[in-house]
Amino acid sequence: MTILLVLLSIAILVLLIVWAKLNPFLAFIISSIIAGFLLGMPADQIAGSVQKGIGDLLGGLVIVIVTGAMLGKLVAESGAAQRIADFLMGIFGQKNIIWAMSITGLVVGIPLFYNVGFVLLVPLAFTVAYQYKISAVYVGIPLLAALSVTHGFLPPHPSPAALVAQFDANMGLTLFYGFIIAIPTIIIAGPIFAKTLKNVKASPLKTFQAETRPESELPGTFNSFFTALLPVFLLVGMTALNLNTSAESSIAPLIGFVADPAIVMLISVLVATYTLGLRRNFKMTQLMDIYTIATKDIAMILLIVAGAGALKQIFTDTGVSQVIADGLSTWDVQPLFLAWVITAIIRVCVGSATVAGLTTAGIIAPLVGTMNVDPNLLVLSIGAGSLMFSHFNDAGFWMYKEFFNVSIKDTIRTWSLMETLVAVFGLIGVLILNLFI
Fold it and tell me: Which has the closest alpha carbon to 317: 32, 10, 24, 15?
């Protein structure tokens, strides 16, 4: 009966978002309160549980998500993203243009939030397609596959970062494992899949073609790559140092401090403020304006994450987690696959990758200790499931259709199928990696 009530609570969440068109944050809060009543929590404890869930989850994530948005915005506004794209185009040339687009999406997608990366890089794809007289879909899909993978798999993006916090995983290890899985997934869903799309007709509007900056206004190649990838270097480097340093060592506390994701992101933003900002004659007031706009851009993401924390706490405080754990213990299903399936179903119903991932985390997080599964791989499994089959209820579906100016049939054939390939091969990668960890 308890599991049915949990499913009813999740169904209410889905209906509030899909049918009532309610904002996901409000939907999470309302469904959390309803879940509290349904599961027998005393009325005077529900509000406190909701507040605790919001505070506990946001407490460790606000710095990571906000500074990540600031870094991404500066990478875009400074011209560093354009420099990275131009450099890769020059290396790969027309013959291997789809590989250049994939690498561009991967490199630039690490610091940029998905919507920012989409708006910034898709016009570059249109410019390349126009220049070489080739299909915009053929050029664009490898780029978007890479952006999707970074969005779903790699911290410090909001969903994987939140999952790391919920599962008490290691952000550096998750990022390292994420790269191992991301690269083959991008290759399959990007360049290989794109070869089947050469004849798909697209007529991108001229409005969306990139306004390229003059060469003289762009930062240097090394500066652009180094600054954009600094969070990766620091997270992976500090994690490696931490794993190879004795707990009794005098530098262990310092390594632990610098390895904290919030400190990594703060250092990265401060470095970028100088390398892409002050050093290139940006005024401090200009940089702070850029950061303010970036914070506004991700305000709703923070609220959605907060709402997911509320639902998770209700499930924890009512003892539902133990009931679910007892129920799942009788299922002969690999835990990583089970988490992926739950996430994929919610994703198809709700349309939001972030909502799908965080809703699943609310169910699975309290069970990690009993599931005998690597929490870092669990983050990646849920991240893969959260990208399953984007369709009519996903804003990304309509952004793609309108930007590329293709039919709904071709949108499903290209965009929806690409997202499905990312989800499926992401899961396969997780299961293979699990054999060796």
Answer: 32
Distance CA 77, CA 140 (A): 21
| Residue 24 lies inside a defined structural domain of this protein | no
Residue 28 domain-assigned (yes or no)? no
Domain that includes residue 80, residue range: 54-437
> DSSP letter at 273?
I
3-state DSSP percent of the chain in helix, strand and coil, to 5: 80, 0, 20
Return the beta strands (E) in 142-257 as ranges. Answer: none
Peptide bond into 253 cis (omega under 30): no
Residue 254 lies in a domain: yes
Helix (H) / strand (E) containing 160: helix 158-167
Amino acid at 187: I
Peptide bond into 156 cis (omega under 30): yes
- Are 228 and 107 a contacting pair, CB within 8 Å? yes
CA distance linking residue 33 with residue 29, whole number of Å = 6
Residue pair 426/181 in contact by the 8 Å Cβ criterion: yes
Whether residue 81 contacts residue 120, with contact meaning beta carbons closer than 8 Å, is answered with: yes
- Tell me if 202 is assigned to some domain: yes
Per residue in 302-337, pLDDT tens?
Answer: 888 788 888 878 887 888 766 665 565 566 788 899
Q: pTM here?
A: 0.76
Residue 334 phi/psi, 5° resolution?
Answer: -60, 125
Rg of the chain on CA atoms, in Å? 22
Give CA–CA dist 61/58, Å, rounded: 5
Phi, psi (5° rounding) for residue 79? 90, 0
CB atoms within 10 A of CB 55: 13
Separation in Å, CA 52 to CA 24, 64, 91, 295, 309? 19, 20, 51, 23, 8
In tens, the pLDDT along 356-384 reads 888 888 888 777 777 789 999 999 999 99
d(CA 383, CA 345): 13
What DSSP string runs through 277-327? IGGGT--HHHHHHHHHHHHHHTHHHHHHHHHHHHHHHHHHHTTHHHHHHHH
How many structural domains comprise the chain?
Answer: 1
